[in-house]
Please model this.
Amino acid sequence: MNRIEKIIEFLKQQPKDNFLRHALALEYLKIGEDIKARDLFVEILTESPDYIGSYYHLAKCLEKLADKNEAIVWYEKGMAAAKLAKDDHAYRELQGAYEDLVY
Model:
């Protein structure tokens, strides 16, 4: 059983586990399933906007999909969420990626 299959099995038992869903999205990115990854990251952040780690990966995925405007939106949402959570490291990481894209 590969990693994706294992994560899916775990998700059958805990379908709203953000750690597992995030891990699955990252695995999808590794195999070039960018749309599946995007959709999963959006689902996570729609349901749990405080799951800070997914903002960066979603925005990077959107950049890869050539959706610059949507990537900017998610970087901005991520920076706001990181600031609210007082997560300076995540904020700086998001801000750096945002600035690389915008400027």
Notes: The chain has a mean pLDDT of 97. The first helix runs from residue 3 to 13. Residues 3-102 form a domain with the Serine Threonine Protein Phosphatase 5, Tetratricopeptide repeat fold (CATH 1.25.40.10).
